[in-house]
């Protein structure tokens, strides 16, 4: 069944006249009459009967009209959805994020949702290595990772740099000061983030100790920052994390202090596959992040 002829039939049924239907469809009357005749021949039924100047639906025509209304409305909606999806106005945006820099996401997602309310989100989490692998496998389109990371396969957008801070159990009164030195931390049980694979924050922090001739006491390594912070909350030890992490995850019974006399800094980045197709939703999300590069 030809969809164009089905649309012509529906308009003729609505208008009750070939002349009015042709005007509504912005076409001449003879071609429309010809298309109706071809349609009836294809179906081998009469769809209309004349009553004066009006065309009335036959029983077969009425059955076709009732079904065609629903069918064509669905097709119109499908066409609109496909068009809007192509424009980034609809669909699902698949994101991956490292928990330690998750604080950069909520406000950006909120602004994006306000502008594109028909785009939903699918969110995955993991350490920077895992998120980069998810991007490579195209399981997510955009990853929010913590540097450093090998970016050979990616395009990327760096966010602002931020300092590391010390998170300690509130019961550790010896740390209750505006800042603390790495020398004081070297003799304290440390709980540090460590990626599943590759180098990252762990190596960066260890290097800072090594540069001062210090050998820290590493009690626990873990790729999940929320687990580490829970351990700190229990009083097991102290951790060092990016400052923005605590905007999303700061458990009870913990306190925070700065690290003095060190240049320990970190930065986050949005990454996506280089020279590969990105959905319009992903492109618009990246554009909005670049336009609003601000701290969480």
From TrEMBL:
The molecular function GO annotations come to: DNA binding
Fetch the InterPro entries from UniProt.
HTH-type_LysR_regulators, LysR_HTH_N, LysR_subst-bd, WH-like_DNA-bd_sf, WH_DNA-bd_sf
Gene3D superfamilies hit by this protein: 3.40.190.290, Winged helix-like DNA-binding domain superfamily/Winged helix DNA-binding domain
Q: Where is the signal peptide?
A: none
All copies of the HTH lysR-type domain together span 1-58
Asked whether the UniProt record includes Transcription among its keywords, one would answer yes
Keywords assigned by UniProt? DNA-binding, Transcription, Transcription regulation
Q: Respond yes or no to whether keyword DNA-binding is given for this record.
A: yes
- Which domain of life, per UniProt? Bacteria
Q: Which family does it belong to?
A: Belongs to the LysR transcriptional regulatory family.
Q: What is this protein called?
A: DNA-binding transcriptional LysR family regulator
